[in-house]
Write a structure and sequence with these properties.
By secondary structure, this protein is an alpha+beta fold. It contains 6 helices and 11 strands. The protein has a 4-stranded mixed β-sheet, with helices on one face. A 3-stranded antiparallel β-sheet has the order 6-10-9.
Length: 233
């Protein structure tokens, strides 16, 4: 491992056919406030996926030495640990068939996942989301829907790492062709060299993106952890 490298941990879990049967045990792993939010969801499948995602996050945090699960919310809605002194940054995402979280010490991180077979209309969404070079790559792609979701996922990860969510104008972030890279609109005042981004294909039907803001030139070592639902109860 390079000296001074930042360790980025990505934890993932896929629901299985019998995961819904684990819902009571998954809920028991959550604190009352989170449990109440999950149980208010209408669809059983949504309750199961959300409970699985939050159980995954709590499992991952415990592996990083966090045992008191008290959470707070940053000004634009990003969840954080109430005890900021531990220096742990985390982010959570879930989509149809996948939940994932990212954890890093001392830095802000964002993660986003999408099911690439999700139905979208790139022609409708692209003008408000993509720059012209990104739109050109979409037109040249044999799978424009999947390409659009890849671009969207990486932009979302950047927005979540910055703590801005959809308050960040997504056209102000351009995903460069080739190995993942970024170009920012001047009005953001951000230095691209301070950002590390990755794209993964954790399953055949999912794309996952992670964005991390760290000092320029600092190496990042990524570790992937795949969990089974029963490991989280």
């Amino acid at each position: 491992m390079p000296d001074g490298a930042i360790i980025l941990d990505i934890w993932m879990v896929e629901p299985e056919a019998d995961t819904e049967g684990l819902l009571p045990a998954l809920l028991a792993r959550l604190e009352p406030e989170a449990r109440d939010r999950v149980t208010r969801l209408v669809r059983q499948g949504d309750r199961t996926l959300h409970a699985l995602a939050h159980a995954l996050l709590r499992h991952a945090l415990r592996q990083h030495g966090v045992h008191e699960m008290r959470f707070a919310t940053a000004p634009y809605g990003k969840p954080t640990l109430a005890d900021a002194s531990c220096g742990i940054g985390f982010n959570l995402t879930h989509t149809d068939g996948l939940a994932a979280c990212a954890i890093v010490h001392g830095h802000e991180v964002g993660i986003d996942a999408e099911a690439l077979d999700r139905r979208v209309e790139p022609g409708v969404l692209a003008p408000s989301v993509l720059t012209e070079p990104e739109a050109a790559s979409l037109r040249a792609s044999p799978r424009p829907e999947a390409r659009f979701l890849e671009l969207w996922t990486l932009k979302e990860a950047v927005a979540k790492a910055a703590g801005l969510g959809l308050r960040l104008p997504l056209k102000a972030v351009e995903v460069l062709a080739g190995p993942p890279g970024l170009r920012f609109a001047p009005e953001l005042g951000w230095d691209e060299a301070e950002w590390h981004v990755e794209m993964h294909r954790p399953t055949e039907r999912h794309g996952l993106a992670v964005a991390l803001r760290r000092p320029q030139g600092c190496a990042v070592l990524t570790r992937l952890h795949v969990m089974m639902p029963r490991d989280l109860v």
